[in-house]
Amino acid sequence: METCWQLKIMKSLFRCVIPVLIFAACLSGCESTPKPEPLYSWGAYETQVYAYLDGENRDSLLLKFQRELEIIKSTGKAVPPGFFAHLGLLYAEAGQEADAFACFISEKTLFPEAAPFMDFLLRREK
Questions:
Q1: Per residue in 22-33, pLDDT tens?
Q2: To 10 degrees, what angle do helices 58-75 and 45-53 make?
Q3: How far apart are CA 46 and CA 99, in angstroms?
Q4: Which residues contact 69 (CB under 8 A, 6 or more apart)?
Q5: Which domains does the chain have, with CATH numbers?
Q6: Could you tell me the CA-to-CA distances from 62 to 17, 33, 71, 79, 97 in Å, in that order?
Q7: By percentage, how much of the chain surpasses pLDDT 70?
Q8: 40-82 pLDDT, tens per residue?
Q9: 90 and 111 in contact (C-beta within 8 Å)?
């Protein structure tokens, strides 16, 4: 009889405690994985693009982009895709062709998939 009572206790443990322990182990496993570092330093780039599309003054945007580039370089992180292309377009609109060319070439070098579009812009600005 004593064995039957012990079996009942063991069954109740397996039914109640073991699932709770498995659930707790799963939750702790999810929490312990570190968040991966982003590939690029986006900073305020997205809001600056929105401001450009919203019609913000080109000269103030140029200053913001230049400041953002300095911040990105000082942190040692990578410039996001399209950053140099957009900065180059702002330089081209301001009539600073040499700076625009340098930005387009930087974009083309860092992101080879942008080469066809950068080549188009380089031909257009000549």
A1: 777 666 665 566
A2: 170
A3: 21
A4: 79, 83, 87
A5: 45-125 (1.25.40.10)
A6: 62, 39, 14, 16, 14
A7: 75
A8: 888 888 888 888 888 889 899 999 999 999 999 998 889 999 9
A9: no
